[in-house]
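Internal QA ticket QA-208
Title: Verify multi-chain structure generation after dependency bump
Assignee: T.L.

Test input:
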Amino acid sequence: MSNLSATEEQGRMQRIGDQAKVYAARMRLQGAMDQADALDGIREIAGNLIGTEEVAVFKVDKKRSELWLYWSFGVDPNKHAVLEVNREPKLKQALGGQAVFRLRLSNENLLSTDDPVNALVPIVVNGTALAVIVLFRLFPHKTRLEAVDREICDVMTHCGGRAVAPYYSH
Amino acid sequence: MPLVFVFPSLHSIKGIKEMPKKVLLVDDSSTTLMMEEMILKQRTNYECVTAKDGLDAISRAVVESPDLVLMDVVMPRLNGFEACKRMRLEESLQDTPIILVTTRGEEEYVEAGFQSGCNDYITKPVDSFELVTLLQRYLGE
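Actual output:
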């Protein structure tokens, strides 16, 4: 009986923690003062709430055929200057507006790069994906992205507009 | 036999609540501070005070005399290791439990934390259950 209560309490606390993370992520991005602050917010969320210090934002060109590296943290910018949509099917999928995550037991990479990519998170403004946040390697003690991480990514999709569209307001 | 009056302590009198424990949260990320504060406010009755870097943390700690310090390692101006060392030089903070929040759980990194005078560490991203359980352990609850 006491074990059950402990498990229940742990579950309850987990839910509160998850809600706090999602709320904090939303508040951080919605409260971003300007573009630089919004990009810093993405770095903070990736590092402190999701568990990666290797993150990059790629902005889509007008033809929607290429994405150019716009901002990065913890990754070599020379290695990831441009991504071609036709060569990256998962990226094409992300540009449709839905985040793409690396499957738990899959060794398949989401992009054709040596660096492991764990998520492709679109930034959607007025119904159109203007950019994609790429989450590379996770912290060594973080083995996979959890359900709450996907919720946080969803927040970045819908509240991260100011990072790439400076005059965007929520 | 002399008559001895035994006065009950304030805490033992029914209806009088204990003073809430004070926790100093230190992080340069407003997102992390908000998240930690939300978790602690929902699951404990701790009073939270915040600081945004190591230097700020030392002055806040001296003024506020927290019961526990939960501090990030990588911060501008003064990192968590250095802030921890300097806090230990303050007489009023020598016995205050300090828990470092790190992004890395490797042995040498953890060792550096203990050498700086911290009592324990927790890794990012913070797990709410682990956080509350750890704080309760140090705050005797």
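Spot checks passed. The first helix of chain B runs from residue 30 to 43.
Status: verified.
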